[in-house]
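FAQ
Q: What does a multi-component entry look like?
A: The components come first, one per line:
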Amino acid sequence: LSSEPIERRVSYLGDRLRGTKCQICGKEYFEIRDYCGNCGRKSFGKMLDTDLFYEKGKLEVCTLVNEPTNKFTKLGGYVYGIVSFHEGKVRVPGRLTDHIVKCDEEIDFSNLEGRPVTPRFRRRYSVDKSDIIPTISLAFTFADEYYPHQDHNLLKPSKEYDVAGIVGYGCYSSRFRINEGSMQRAIPFVDEDAITAAVEAGKLALIHSGVSSSHIGKVYVGSESNPYAVKPIASKVAQVLRLGEEDEDDVQGVDAVDTEFACKAATSVFKDAVSLVNYSKSNVDNAMVIGTDNSQAAPRDCPGGELDLFVGYGAAAFVFGKNDVIAEVEGWYSCTSDTPDFWRRDGEPFPMHGGRFTGDPAYFKHVRKASKKLMERLRLQADDVDYFVAHQPNAQFPVKVAKELGFKEEQYLPSLQVVKFGNTYSGASPVGLAAVLDVAKPDSRILVASYGSGAGSDAYSLLTTSQILDKRHRQKLTVKYQAENPFLEYVDYTTYRRLKIGM
Amino acid sequence: MQNLPAIVAAGRTRFGEHYEKEPEKLIEEAWLKASIEANLERKDIEACYLSDYFLPITNKLGLEEGFLSELTELHVPMEVTRSFSSALSNACNAIIAGRHDVVLVGGIEKMTDRWDKIRDDLMLLEDPWSFYAGCTPEANHELMLRAYIKKYGLKGENLEKLNVALAQVSVNNHLHATKNEFAQYQRKITLENVLDARKEARKPLGLYDFAPISDGAATIILSSDKTAKKLTTKPVYVLGFSSATDFLTFPARDDLTHFIVTRIATKNALKAAGLSLRDLQLTELYDQSTVMEMVSLEDMGFCELGKAWNSIYESCQEYQGYYEIDGRQLFVNMNGGLKADGNPLGATGGAQIFEVFRQLRGEAGERQVKTDKGLKHGCVLELEGFGTKGYVYVLGSDKN
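Then the predicted structure of the entire assembly, as tokens:
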């Protein structure tokens, strides 16, 4: 059995790559230290907490590991090496991730050494199913490939809006795809899961928003593929992203909670986040909502296996607030009924799918109702809406419901990302929304209608502001960039299942 | 005047896989050989210094001293350390201080009992952060080699020579081990074996570049120089010894190409012995990998930094059993080194000391080193972890 205290300490340091810098002589360390080796006792109290989480490193030297230690065997072969930061002032061990080393692949190490790398938040290694899942950011990818390094610069709040809304966002998906029929679907690398995607998306949202992580007072994570039945993803997100106020101790001053309602687990709480930041006594300037899923499906020949043709992987995170809003939330409508169209019993690895209810009594009925009711309430016609974003379990449903509601292709196509990433479950409509935010002009109205099996729908109307353009350059990892990236790697079905099941 | 520690007898088992024997049985075998040589009984032993790197993990043995007490029915002071060199340091200090007069130093390891998990254990103990990042016991050696190649700007023909020289290190060690009845691998290998294994592994070092996983035990009997004369006609004196310590996390060290512990320990051990490197014709190096043998030649000072590969390469054009460095002969790892003799961690240093002891007494049989002026001094380098600790012993057949 693993040791929880050791696990907690290693994760605390390793997830964020926490370090220390001596403010007297400038010496830097990986890991937290109270003293500097050069300056001795006089450095006590003068050691600055630092971290390498947003930094760009350099792969100094590397080799191939093709016979890993037991805990790493599910990674197959991988490149392992030493990464330096800050012109070599601090060095850490690290493995390259997001790379499937083929069994006859000859790697020229000198081609890899010297290249810039970015830390990635991943599962550390395999453990028993009942153990704590170990994570770490001593996994790296090349910054000149799929995942570029982005500077993390905070923005000073410049304008307070009357209406709260989205302040920044980030969408994260892996660099692996399976290409079947008319659909490409994202697949996690073997060390990824719903937790790692949530952290990565949250990181991107913080980069884009420019909001200080200390100003995030609450984080909600919606998922239906949390690898834990009991233990929130949100707590990991809060700690790794250092959300909320920080004191001397290692407990973040933030409220964190996971939500679950099939694919609308995240969208359901957009309104909670908006309300919270709008409530004068909440003391919460910003709230973060993340929808994340390593969408689950049984293998194709098993019950529930029909989902295996559609499931994707990804997460989207949104920072809500009243300062420097890029899209105001002008209204919402939610509806719910007890319609058992899709479920997963506790302890079961894969969801089941009630074929009878899928479609009309479930998806269409709820999405249609929420959208119509919201449009009625806001006195909107289809023409008043610039972009329509619907939950997208496949390529057909969102198109059909969009047409029924009177929307034209130019209104619903920009959000239709399911053919690029697969059904990202709790991340599905959020990824669609992120794709629209990537391209929308100021003063555009976006109608989002999520759907969660079980069943319910949340419709939101968003109105973009001029700041959407001001902040656009702050996000290199747009949805389009991830969908059309030249470094995407396509895998076969067997590899797809192996990666999806993970470590 | 201070006592000078002297080795009066040594015994060891063959290294390899001993799945039929308990760890205590191995130490018993090694002890019996040493005690017969010194004509000592258990009751003559005043204290025991035992080393094992991780018997509590591999064999679930805590309180190893208790097992030894039960075996020997002795109730004398016993202490356990991680490496043979560490045990020997304690023993030497006790002799020098006059605390004890005759002590047993023993080392034992039983790695094959935990064959399936041993690499995880080794890596986690050696360097936890690197382990968490995916390192293997082999990878750090390869990174050191990559760093070495970069630092000294080796390419083209020189890089080829370096790779061949490293392969030759393994070939030499296997050749030496054919004359060592205790060695794990008493068979020759070829340059092609080493190079092919690297090619198959698609990385800088292959199977034949690394020491194996081994079981085994080694013991010596240590006494003061006065008592030594009564126990043997040919005592071998511990003329000088020292150790040094470095960071656990390899990437955090200033120098990725060398082991600072070796440099410090060598310098201090030589100073204590009142000798210079030129007085040493024989050394047992800690070749957990071929790279380690190469950099240790530089770290100890036998070769200039960044040049050892060339000395090895040139010496191996027609290998005569020694390296020729600046016109001098240096005999290295005559027992086959860790590569071929075996590497049961807690006992490894014992085998190294055993070898120099035998050589200095002229008892090394077929592998006996012959030098023009007669072999008087030898030294041993033992490391713990990946250069986290380094111990150097300078042994001599005369007191100086």
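Q: Is there any commentary attached?
A: Sometimes. For this entry: The interface with chain B takes residues 10, 14, 29-31, 60-72, 75, 78, 80-83, 91-95, 105-107, 109, 113, 124-125, 134, 136, 138-139 of chain A (CB under 8 Å).
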